[in-house]
Amino acid sequence: MWLPRLPPPLSLRLEVQRMNHEHIPGWGADLDRSQRPAVPMERRPPRLEGVHWSDPPPAQQSSVEILKSTEHLKMPPVFGTSVPPRGVSGWIRRRAFRHSENDLRHWLMLLFADRVDVVEGVLSDGRRSRGARSAAAIVGATLVAAWLLRRSP
Q1: What is the pLDDT of residue 94?
Q2: In terms of Cα–Cα distance, which of 88, 92, 48, 37 is closest to 67?
Q3: Cis peptide before 40, with omega less than 30 degrees from 0?
Q4: Residues 68-88, buried b or exposed e (16+ Cβ, 10 A)?
Q5: Among 127, 120, 113, residue whose Cα is nearest residue 144
Q6: Over the stretch 118-142, which tens digit does the pLDDT of each residue have?
Q7: How far lies 126's CA from each of 2, 12, 34, 119, 143, in Å?
Q8: Residue 26: which residues within 8 A CB-CB, separation 6 or more?
Q9: Model pTM score
Q10: Torsion angle defined by CA atoms of residues 76, 82, 84 and 86, in that order, rounded to the nearest 10 degrees
């Protein structure tokens, strides 16, 4: 008759694990500083020579509005300008950036602004097209708006 093999008791497993690691040189948390891999922390020779990180790059110039968090005192040296805030979604984004980043209202307003931006994009596409495509775009925008509003938190 076949019997399943049971695992060894926990105390025996812990003893086997402890024994298996003792053969590793330098095993343990309280090693001498000379044997720790991160000491000394300086690398000889330095990895990058001639690098001058103390000189910040020149600030990027912007021709569009950039929304800045309340946590940051100044703009970072480089930032994205591909999608400036515009329309109703831009208005919502401006209101969202009045709140701190650790405030839930900030993130929920940004999510809602993204959904409003989708509807605005579909409507602007419908305005640019002519005839039946325009009517279809408006109907499509209405359906997308209804779907997004149903899904929004």
Answers
A1: 94
A2: 92
A3: yes
A4: eeeeeeeeeeeeeeeeebeee
A5: 120
A6: 888 877 877 777 666 666 777 777 8
A7: 74, 73, 71, 11, 13
A8: 35
A9: 0.52
A10: -160
